[in-house]
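User: My collaborator sent over this chain with a note saying "see what the structure looks like." That's all I know about it. Can you take a look?
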Amino acid sequence: MVDVFLVIAIIVAFAILLVSALYLVVYYQHPDDHNEAWGPKFVVIFGFVLAGWTVIMFPIDVANNEGYAGCDGYDTAFCGGLNVEALWDAIFWLIPIWVFVLIPYSTFYYESDDGTVMMGTAYGANHIKKSRIGQALCYQMFVFVIIGIFFVVTYLVLNETKIPVQDYQAQTISISNLIASGDFYLYPDLTSVNENATFTVNELAPMDLSDQTYYASVTNAGGEEIKLEVSASTFYAGLMAWLGWWLFSLFGGVGLAALPLDLILAFVNRPKHMDAVEYAEAQMSLRERVNELVDIGELIKIERDEKASAGIVTTRWSMDTDKRKAAGDERQALLGFKQAVFLLEKDTEDFQAMSVNYEHYNSLVPFFPCFVEFCAAIISLFWFLHIICVYVYSDPPLTPFLNNYFKWFDNWFLMFGVLSVALFVVYLLFCAVKGCFKFGIRFMFFQIHPMKLGKTYMSSFMFNIALVLLCALPVVQFSQEAFSDYAAFSQIRQLFGVQIQYLQFFQWFWTKQVFIYIFMSVSILTGIYLACRPRDQAANPEALRDRLRANKQGNK
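Assistant: Without extra context I'll predict from the sequence alone. Here is the result:
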């Protein structure tokens, strides 16, 4: 029988995720996207729901307990009755569909030319109606073919898992002695001599004291491996987790240290009233930065116009070393320019809050980040202790630590521990998003996509949703391993902890805890780095200007 409380929890969780996604899109979207880009908005909204549902499914799976053998029929007292394995299979298929099909297509469609500006180069006969769809489909087919070949080949070659099984041997007990002792479970046809006994799982029974006494007499008889071919959904869950781990181990590690530290800085550097001298100095500094960035923007525009008129195309994929270097320099200059503009906009907003809008500024607002920072610092510290000190790197672990905390909470209220697990798991996703933004703004290896209230384009939404979806399965895999005591009877523990854990090729990464070491090393190094350089610094305008001028001279 299905647990009604779990059904209600699922409905409420889904409703909260959907409302949160709608709120995020409505209030964070750029005015240019009002009443526009309905397809990308659909992908963003339900991509957000899918990402949230993936991590929320873990605590629901824990509460369901369907991984317990007794749930097959003979001991269903604490089984939830939900078919979470089917729900997990749906998630395992939907994530790659969203990441490799819907989000790329929506991005190509959103950023493609609509056919009205470049009339002669539009795709198809009816350039106004078909150009954007045609261009998006053309690019998406290329992505689909490459990813499709990769997925098919990897499944055909790497779909075998080798699960280690431990054998135990104990003394043989004859049926006659067992019956004579009176300490046995009587099967319906056990006393029948002329009929074959038929066994079903419902004829099993929970262990009692005599079973435990007998179990104490068993001895280790060695081990062997069972070779199995996993289903396509299970394999792709492992593949997507492996791909996502490369991002999560880097960005999640950065975010685990950066998230609480940035919240501390947000409170320390909260808007404060300025006197006349401070106001004049801040205004002059902002004016100088604006003028410098305007000059750099003009240089970038002039350089692009000159290249277009001369027919010069620079790409990082060129066979010419000089062209590759020129393209790399141009890209770095553009990323530095965008980073400087973002920080200038942020400082301008702070300046307005401290001057023009100071009378309307709510002085209690900074205390909310202070409270969130306190909670984030505690969660980051607990994760750090749980991973480093007591669980993942200790064999055997010194103490279950957070596992005992969750079980203790469940003694108060049935779902209290589950809600605590959800908090810790969702926090890791926030760390991944924060780490991606922090890494991008500090090192400028890729374009940053900040989420700003009323100023976020759909392309930035889709970038962040893709990142969260890629990190969702690594977060679930990491959590089921870290909370293995608490999640011992979850279905995801049977999938990630058994089948996926021993997939060929991937097994080495899981068993050697390669990604865990990367995750914690990055987190420690980030904490040290941010302690030395806590504030984000804009790119040097003079360096950007010199790089653009040198690149311009090199192209002549």
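A starting point for your reply to your collaborator: DSSP finds 17 helices and two strands in the chain.
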